[in-house]
Specification:
2 strands; Bromodomain-like; mainly alpha
């Protein structure tokens, strides 16, 4: 592994998280591919990473704990992506999360009926691919790499510390 300082590593994760979110929003709002609920859920860990890393740069304390927290976040994201991949490929049945729209938008019986009549994006339908891979598959690979690098940085923290 490259002998990089922890601060540089955290900046790389920050950039990767930002690019991942920017790409997802570009695909959604510019290219017009609507995400399913699990796709939306897979974005949350990247937001957490951005918030945690920026907070770490401001406070400049608890860096080793921050890296451990990032490992847990990437692991959580990895599990969600594996589950989504399983739904896309028919290994798992779609759960109720795949069919639910934002419950905070449901205020009345009429709005609930309106949402039920609208077509929701299925978690098993892949509407966008990059080099033949679904975004979920790319997310799995990205999270696995980030988990491995984070664990190596965590285990060798004293060596790579700023």
């Amino acid at each position: 592994m490259l002998n990089i300082k922890t601060g540089i590593y955290l900046k790389i994760i920050l950039i990767i998280s930002f690019i991942s979110l920017a790409s997802a929003y570009y695909i959604e709002y510019v290219l017009g591919h609507q995400p399913c609920n699990l796709c939306l859920l897979e974005r949350i860990p990247y937001w957490f990473c951005i918030i945690i890393i920026i907070t770490n740069f401001i406070i400049k304390k608890y860096e080793k704990f921050i890296i451990l927290l990032l490992i847990l976040i990437f692991f959580f994201s990895f599990i969600i992506s594996i589950y989504h991949f399983g739904i896309e490929n028919g290994f798992f049945e779609e759960s109720t999360i795949c069919g639910i729209k934002n419950s905070s938008e449901i205020l009345s019986k009429e709005e609930l009926l309106k949402q039920l009549s609208e077509k929701t994006i299925s978690c098993k339908d892949v509407t966008f691919r990059v080099f033949g891979l679904s975004l979920t598959t790319i997310n799995i690979a990205l999270n696995l790499l980030l988990i491995i690098f984070s664990i190596k940085i965590f285990l060798n923290y004293e060596k790579f510390k700023n």
